Amino acid sequence: MRRRHLPLLAALAALPGTRTAEAQQDWPSRPIRLVVTFPPGGSSDIVGRVLAEALAQRLPQRPLIDNRPGAGGTLGAGHVAAQPADGTTLLMSNTGPIVTSPPLYPNLPYDPVSGFTHIAYIGASPVVIMVNPRLVPATDLPGLVAWLRASPVPVPYGSSGAGSIAHIFGETLQARIGATMTHVPYRGSAPMSADLLSGAIPLAFDPLPQNVETIRAGRLRAIAIAAPVRQAMAPAVPTTAEGGFPELLSENWIGLSGPAGMPAALVNRLHAEVMVALETPLMKTRLEELGIATRAKSPAEFTAFIAAEVRTIGGAIRALGITAN
Predict the structure, then answer these.
(1) Structurally, how many domains does the chain consist of?
(2) Most buried residue, 50, 74, 161, 242, by CB count within 10 Å?
(3) Residue at 56 is within a domain
(4) Is 278 among the domain residues?
(5) Cβ of 85: how many Cβ atoms within 10 Å?
(6) Would you say residue 5 lies in a domain?
(7) CA 212 vs CA 39, 61, 69: distances in Å
(8) pLDDT tens digit string along 180-210?
(9) Which conformational region is residue 49 in: left (phi greater than 0), alpha (psi within -120 to 50 degrees), or beta?
(10) Which of 225, 242, 264 is at the close of a domain?
């Protein structure tokens, strides 16, 4: 009797694996949504759109961009974390909602490490210190520091949002130089840049890529880049180290993540597709134009990188007493 049932038992045991394989073979059966946690115009949005264009050359379903800004990117990240782990809702993960915002927003519905499947690291770009040249006389970092220290009132500075890497950089800077500034959070880089250009705020911190054109045009003055070396897209802008503050380093990384529990075979395929996309002329050229340096990381290496960022940067946020307000 037992021998007669062995073929049936074997067939039944194979069914789950067969269904999984079929599901992965048919993926994506419906359009993929790439959730961007900031409004259009920021680096995550720009990279997301270029990635979608590159993936569309190889996938049967064209990825769609879904902008879901708010609460330092945690609204969009929380939305993705709650979706089915079928690879059709993915997150353009970045430093904000994954590393800097969780310590600032208690009781989030996700854990930044275990709450997601971290698929592919794309690249990173440094934060730039910018001023409106009509309002700020300083032309270099020592001059800016002196101007901030001499101000009789707290100087307002803009960032793309509470919990963004630029917000953390601003708070770190003022703690380091002993000046008092007031954080003005925006719902993304685009509205912040508009207010900086108009003179509503005199100073801002933001990733370099989305601001390089206004800097080149002379409409904004770049004081320093928070990177160890100068950037090819803005070679005339000195580093914070050249300005006497080598410890003031800050970058915004961008990657691709999905809900927790995605099948390993699907994760590997998505990772491979992103790696191929990064080598296309379209994406290589655009990332170079944006000053985003790509670095190869496996899904396991990407997850370990995020865990380390959460420990170190999250610890610094708590040590400085930085809040979302």
Answers:
(1) 2
(2) 161
(3) yes
(4) yes
(5) 16
(6) no
(7) 18, 33, 23
(8) 999 999 988 889 999 999 999 999 999 888 8
(9) alpha
(10) 225
Query: Do 79 and 130 have their domain in common?
Result: no
Instruction: Report which residue type is found at 301.
Output: E
Same domain, 45 and 99: yes
pLDDT value at position 232? 84
Q: What's the chain's length in residues?
A: 325
Joined together, the tokens standing for residue 295 give 């670095």
Same domain? For 112 and 132 the reply is no
Supply the pLDDT for residue 228. Answer: 87
Per 3-state DSSP, what percentage of the chain is helix, strand, and coil (rounded to 5)?
45, 20, 35
**How far, in Å, are 29, 90, 170, 323 from residue 93 at the CA level?**
23, 9, 22, 21
pLDDT of residue 5: 46
Cα of 200 vs its chain's centroid, Å: 26
Q: Is the dihedral of CA 132, 134, 139, 145 positive or negative?
A: negative
Q: What is the residue range of 143's domain?
A: 126-225
CA–CA distance, 222 with 242 (Å, rounded to integer): 14
Is residue 165 situated within a structural domain? Answer: yes
- Extract the residue ranges of the chain whose pLDDT is less than 50: 1-23
Distance of CA 316 to the CA centre of its chain: 18
Pairing state between β 181-185 and 116-131: unpaired
* Residues 151/145, Cβ–Cβ less than 8 Å: no
- Judgement on whether residues 141 and 112 belong to the same structural domain of the protein: no
Report the pLDDT value the prediction gives residue 25, as an integer from 0 to 100.
59
Residues 109 and 130 in one domain: no
pLDDT of residue 11: 42
- For position 24, what pLDDT does the model report? 53
Residue 310: CB atoms within 10 A of its CB come to 18
Pairwise CA distance, residues 33 & 254, whole Å: 16
**CA 200 → CA 39, 156, 191, 195, 197, distances in Å?**
20, 9, 11, 5, 8
117 and 75 share one domain: yes
pLDDT value at residue 324:
75
Exposure string over 121-138, b if 16+ CB within 10 A, otherwise e:
bbbbbbbbbbbbeeebeb
